[in-house]
Amino acid sequence: MDAEVFTVWAPEAERVRLAIGETSHEMARVGGGWWRAEVPGCGAGTDYAFQLDDDDTHLPDPRSQWQPEGVHGPSRRYEHRAFPWTDAGWTGRALPGSVIYELHIGTFTEEGTFNRAIEHLDHLVDLGVDLVEVLPVNAFDGDAGWGYDGVLWGAVHQPYGGPDAFKRFVDACHARGLGVVLDVVYNHLGPSGAYLDRFGPYFKGETIWGPSLNLDGPGSDEVRRYVIDNAMTWFREFHVDGLRLDAVHALHDERATHLLEELAAETDALSTALGRPLTLIAESDLNDPKHTRPRAAGGFGLHAQWCDDVHHALHVALTGETVGYYADFDGALKQTLENAFFHAGTWSSFRERTHGRPLDRTVTPGHRFVVCLQNHDQIGNRAVGDRLTATISPARLLCGAALLLCSPYTPMLFMGEEWAATTPWQFFASFPDPDLAEAVRTGRRREFAAHGWGAGDIPDPVDPATVLRSTLHWGELADPDHRAVYDTYKALIALRKAHPALSDPRLDRFTVEVADGLVTLHRGPLRVLANLGKSPAAVPGEILLAAPGVSGELPPDTFAVVSAPSAGS
């Protein structure tokens, strides 16, 4: 019987044992801080754990691929080659020109599993999106959560269905022509089940969310490899098409070659080997064009980044809300839409300092910026998780959708937005430790008490009812009003794809006018008009698509996409 090889990096340990059932096997030091053991008859499905020094505690594998009993239980051997993929003909989906749809597996359906999510993929195809962005699926403690408290990054959360179920989801997406972007979190680990520091110098410092990784100190070579190998595994073994990198501004790395640059280089190399595009999208709070600047020009070489400034400017224009960081964006719609960054070496009242750096519109394409009206952060981090349509009418939402989907940027929708879903999306967790659960509950209430919210107004994040409230009600699509919103979103996406001028990413050819509440996007021979004012406006040119009832005049809270009259006509 062939022996199976187990390895683990534990450079500071004097002794490492491999625990399989009731039996412990001594592991041998093999150099570089690595330990190795060969055990016969331990193929796929074998549960195992590690014991360090003379501590009999069983710890899961830091590189675990499967945690069927949760993040505190044993790891299970998983064989990637055994999965019956059917996507051999998949050639990928490039980011330029694409529309992204962000979803959370646990609240996308009532069952909260990959298998049930597959049943709704045809809805996304009908809508016209190209890439499905899935919030983190890495293993975290508890059944329900956003996924950003993961502690075993290579293991797929078992309540969603585990690794095979995620592969079925990706395979089903590819069968329908949909690419998959996975949200990954490399800037911190969650508060429960983060055992990495027991194995070696994985941690260095803290973020506001939890311990951060050692990316530039002693022993950091293997820690960086841990991150990069994880990313390559999602691409190679799970066939995902892109990674959204959470809060990269919280990655502390003072090396000459930043982790992001190293990751981009390896991703590009793997893309060449696999023969399909692989995309890295950063979430960054820095407003720094360096993230997406090519490596040859001194940048990190990432393919895109989230652009919160565009979201903030659209949110203020649509809602009039100017509390907190929205204060800077009152009247900033034109400047922000044209330049992606509003804060570009300019004063930020929220930060109480200057912030950001301008980008060069002549060389930076708009598709490098992922923009949205709503996303998990901008909804879920509000006190009660309210969507835009809790504040504005569906008609006004469609004005925002027209500006978003006809912009030179890469648009992203948040699940349910396309039919003006009435369900909120609230912050929730389900830590089994009662002390940790109480800390999350009181911390959430304390945070919003500073903004005038009473404790009773804040949803209890560890109450299962909060998850239920946040779960989509697919039956709303049968309602004529919701269906009308969906049909308009679908028509806008189709129009974007039918007219190259509407997806043209060249920012130096894009101008915006804002006058008396009328917003006009100049898109080559086309004009996109959204009337956010209080008076009707004229509609110049031939209407290609408009809100219901619009003809020669544009009432308030309506939009139109028109073919501009030629010169002299």
Describe it.
With 569 residues, this protein is of the alpha/beta class. It is built from 15 helices and 28 strands. Helix 6 runs parallel beside helix 7. The longest helix has 19 residues, at 480-498. The model has no long low-confidence stretch (mean pLDDT 96). The active site is at residues 246, 283. Keywords: Carbohydrate metabolism, Cytoplasm, Glycosidase, Hydrolase.
Could you give the topology of this structure?
Elements: E1 3-9, E2 16-20, E3 23-26, E4 28-31, E5 34-40, E6 47-52, E7 75-76, E8 100-103, H1 105-108, H2 114-118, H3 121-127, E9 131-134, E10 138-139, E11 152-156, H4 162-175, E12 179-184, H5 196-199, E13 203-206, E14 211-213, H6 220-236, E15 242-245, H7 259-274, E16 279-282, E17 304-306, H8 308-319, H9 333-339, E18 346-348, E19 353-355, E20 369-372, H10 376-380, H11 394-405, E21 410-414, H12 434-449, H13 464-469, H14 480-498, H15 500-503, E22 510-515, E23 518-523, E24 526-531, E25 537-538, E26 542-546, E27 553-554, E28 558-563
Parallel strand pairs: 8-9, 8-21, 9-12, 12-15, 15-16, 16-17, 17-20, 20-21
Antiparallel strand pairs: 1-5, 2-3, 2-6, 4-5, 6-7, 10-11, 13-14, 18-19, 22-23, 23-24, 24-28, 25-27, 26-28
Catalytic activity: hydrolysis of (1->4)-alpha-D-glucosidic linkage in 4-alpha-D-[(1->4)-alpha-D-glucanosyl]n trehalose to yield trehalose and (1->4)-alpha-D-glucan
Region (Disordered): 56-75
Binding site for substrate: 244-249, 308-312, 376-381
